[in-house]
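Q: Could you fold this chain for me?
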Amino acid sequence: MNHRKFQGLPSKEQVLEYIKSSDSTIGKREIAKHFRLKGQEKIALKALLKDMAEEGLIDGRKSAFHRMGGLPKVTVLRIVEIDEGEPVAIPETWQPDDATPPPRVRVIERKKQNALRTGDRILARTEEAGRGWIAHPMKKLPSAEGAILGVIELDGAGKPWLAPVDKKIRNSTPVSDIGNAEAGQLVLAESAGRSPRSGVKVTEVLGDPLAPRAFSLIAIHKYGIPHHFSDEVLAEATLAAKLPLSDEQRQDLRELPIIAIDPADARDHDDAIWAAPGKDGGYDAVVAIADVSHYVRPGGRLDREARRRGNSVYFPDRVVPMLPEVLSADVCSLKEGEDRAAMVCHMHISSTGTITSWEFRRAIVRIAHNIAYEDAQAAIDDGVASDDLQHLWEAWKLLSSARDDRDPLDLDLPERRVILDEQGKITEIAVRERLDAHRVVEDFMIAANVAAAKALESKASPVVYRIHEPPTREKLVALREYFDSLGKNLALGQVITPSLFNRMIKDIADDSEKALVMEAVLRSQTQAYYGPKNAGHFGLALGSYAHFTSPIRRYADLLVHRALVDSYGLEQPRPKEDLPPGTGLSDQDREDLTKITDAISLTERRAMEAERDTIDRYVAAWLSGRVGEVFDTRITGVQKFGFFATIVKLGGDGLVPVSSLGREYFHHDEATHALVGENSGQRYAVGDLLKLRLAEANPLTGALKFEPVDADGQPIEPRGSRPQGKARPHKDRQGKHQLGKRGRPGNIRHQGRKKR
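A: Sure. Below is the predicted structure, expressed as structure tokens.
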């Protein structure tokens, strides 16, 4: 489009200058008003902004824009360092892929403002200054975490310092009151005063940071995950667990041989399935889900606590449940041979795999078998499966055929599994095997989730949708540039569908390249979330989707159950016990649905980050005894300061600093995502397979550091002179922390790194 045919339309440079100079959030409306655009000029502006986003000039969503690669004009920042008295912050949320570090922002404090300390959160206006960013605090925000988590270390003079366990925080903090803590112990601390010089005081000693169960404890405290139930909540849960299974409004399915297929180490069982041949070559099926709404009533203490938690959090060594164990691991869990309250979805699967009918009922079930995925798969493979299990597989083949026709996004990325012994020590870290048994359960659950969403829509009932929007224009532009570097083409003029990505992946023969492309496609995806307004599920290629099948561990599913209770008239008689009466949606639920879904979307992301951090710590702990070994790795990201690589088949991303690549200077080629040697032309590019020596593995932070090796497997001699704008190379002493300025311990991850 020739944008300039409209006389008042600004140039791209003018738009960029306006965005950069404005002190407030900028959207299309503000731009149109500033340049006094009217009528067709506003339509042309929309196209202009779209082109600018595609060219990588601006970033943002429909209502707010900022320069690509920059920060919003107003955003939340977290102080991570006090550098020579000046606070340094990073954005609290950072969307680019993990290989792109968040920008470090210098905070300009007002004279009358209380001094900021490490860990403080602020709402600030940001602006570019030279080649960096500065921020002007607008107000201080409440702490996102109740305490500061770290390890006590002593400097050469015996003075205690708190070394952070968060790899985003660079420096240690002085300890003014060590309490009963000793050097090397993991502690919780809080600020001792308003001034940064006041340091911190220890409030709780957590023990050995490398002891079994310590890694999950670090994540629990770091992310502020609630992990203790109050006496009042436990009392209500105990009372609810005694509720009788009334036959009123419940279908008796105890004679139906329903099977629960779960991981061998499952802590709870909230779903089970049954299928049998039906009419017209199809199958009749039942998906039975724990009836948590019978026990957790709206408005009670138990309900409020479940909403606050949002979901259960799963670590290798423990689970932090959404509900007390008397419910989550006992009364609600669908255990073999026990009568249980269930919400069931009756459905008919046609011979083409489509769900032609569904109905939701409350029922009493008695699970015929609890069976592990591996055992179910072995029974099928060995030809010794029961008729009931065989029927499930045959019905699944129909669902699988329909799934293939729908062609959802198929990213078969490996999942790391941490295996612990009875003492909680690591015995193995392996890639979880993907079996047909997993797909059987998954496809039945998806079918029931779709049925729940459509059933509620048909009855004009509120729906908590599981939403996965298509990739944004900005993400697709970045993905296209990445594909260009691999010699592949992604045309943005076409409709972007999961099938498009699947075809590109299937055309790649090399397994390592295929894994890279799948990871790149995954990074291009938007974050799934919960909401009351439907926007479809891009990844599953579904128009309507809700979560119905896991109410023991997800509050969203509990809300869907309550909506089904109302829609199908499944309310239970009022209990005699001192519990809230209803089991459907309360008026407060309906009024606050947007607020509730926003909150549980955040708790879900919190859980994902905590679980990922903990796995990283376990991987680093597993590798800490193998420092010095050479591994097969693959480059996953490239930056000016070095590149990131992951160990093939194991995972664990680590940094290779540019200073360790040799004596010559390396240029960063942004277009091809590569570092290129100035004299030799040696290239390190995303996707390259190479052997790297593990130089550091820090279990406390989960950080790894690699270094390249020569043909004999020996480390390459690092460049002696200081790279432009980069840290000086250094030698680490294994097991000891080198002292930074003023003789104090540095961050464990950044041993010997000096301030710039």
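A (continued): Residues 473-525 form one domain.
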